[in-house]
Amino acid sequence: MVSERGRPSLEAWARNIVASTEGHGSTWNEGDAEDELTALEVEGEGRSALTEAAGPLDCGNSGTSMRLLAGTLAAAPFRTVLAGDTSLSRRPMERVAEPLRAMGAGVVTTDGHAPLEVEGGPLYGVATTLALPTAQVKSAILLAGIAAEGETTVTEPAATRDHTERALAALGAPVSVEGRTVTLQGVYQHDAFSGTVPGDVSSAAFLVAAAALTGSELTVRGVGLNPSRLHFLNVMERMGARTETRPSGQELGEPVGELWVAPGADLRGTVIEASELPLVIDEVPILAVLAALARGETWFTGAAELRTKETDRLTGVADGIRALGGHAGVEGDDLVVPGLGLRGGIADSRGDHRLAMGFAVGALAAEGPSEIEGMEAADVSFPGFVEAIRGLGASVEDAT
Prior knowledge:
Strand order of the largest sheet: 3-4-6-5
CATH topology of the largest domain: UDP-n-acetylglucosamine1-carboxyvinyl-transferase, Chain
Number of strands: 21
Distance between the termini: 28 Å
Oligomer: single chain
CATH architecture of the largest domain: Alpha-beta prism
CATH class of the largest domain: Alpha Beta
Shape: globular
């Protein structure tokens, strides 16, 4: 069975996994109807019980899945191939393969990209200093590190999101953080646990921006409030928006609560320095759209990493803003948005979920009607996005 997006459906994927692990390995509640699956229940037998998959594992469009699975499988005593769609197959994978090789895993890339072949085995802790700030690579090393003999350390050149170290600490792993260095002490196997996944704050960012652009008040409930994911709010505050976070609890070390947006924002341009980029890397498309509708010029400096995302977001954002009747340009590795408004037009998402949602939000404040090509890409990270903004009062029609 193949889904409408050209990837194996959840049902078919579950059948393949269960068939390869029946009686040994992990199983999950795949017997529930897919449309009724509100909780994922996994019965595990520990990391050592993982078994070889019958074929390549399809990571679809998810770089996070591919890199974190590479770290998880680095200690598994069998060969695994990790594949993805055309977009994912263009993204750099040597940045995760190299440190895993240093720990003892056999990792082969395809000219530096996916498909990725991981031949797992005994691992040994090493000290790694990352050349680039990347939470995905840091997390892959940490997931390999909990199966490695000795001490594993990862030092980042700049702070990035810290979901993995928070989860490991909440599950009792011997992990410590000092500045930009994370340290794991030896092999660790956690016990069973339960938790609720908070709403994704990077998805909420598009709703927050929509409220700021339209001068509306908005409260987003049940959203993750991890401090390493909230820097886009600092940028928006500099631009003139007023927001407030209201924590109400935690889930596996992650703060959860409400995110409130005040009405009546008066937006102005700002400068996002290269040192800030890792903390807003997923929010650059929507921040750039905000900048296009703000007073004054906005600069995103040292933004070369945007070229390695689902598409070249550096040029994709600039092209899309211009297509919607605005002004934007790329100067070297900098994105420059003069902030002269949007007239409306037709923008191409290039199949990138964040470009699709960013351009759709920008269209809400454009002078004339707009059309976003490839809007279905939003489902990659925010299924129901169009329905969500309709529910908040946006006028959205399906193009025919």
